[in-house]
Amino acid sequence: MSSLKSLGAAILLSTLAVSAHAGESNRLNINQASATEIDKTLVFVSEDTARSIVEYRDQHGKFNSIHELAKVKGVSKRLARYNRSRISFE
């Protein structure tokens, strides 16, 4: 019986690990994405705002956090936090 519990726990852990990894790969790398990719992937981000994000990145370098992204004109702290799960900074 304990070997069945161990097997069940192992299966659960491996499933969670795969799910977590899959979630990361679905994120948009904000430091490499084009304005079109940003516009299509992030919620409530217009074409103009997406272009502003790319222009800001080109002028100031890579983003390292949601707080830095919120410095872009048109991106509020609330909007940046709302899209946090869709963005990576790699």
Features of the shown structure:
DNA polymerase, domain 1, 4% strand, Competence_ComEA_HhH
Q: What does this molecule look like?
A:
This protein is mostly helical and 90 residues long. The protein has a domain at 28-88: Orthogonal Bundle (DNA polymerase, domain 1), CATH 1.10.150. The model is unreliable at 12-22 (pLDDT under 50). The longest helix has 24 residues, at 2-25. It has 5 helices and 2 strands. It has helices at residues 2-25, 35-41, 47-60, 66-69, 77-82, and strands spanning 28-29, 87-88. Helices cover 61% and strands 4% of the residues. A two-stranded parallel ribbon has the order 1-2. InterPro entries: Competence_ComEA_HhH, Endo/Exo/Phosphatase_dom_1, RuvA_2-like. Keywords: Signal. This is Competence protein ComEA. Residues 1-22 form the signal peptide.
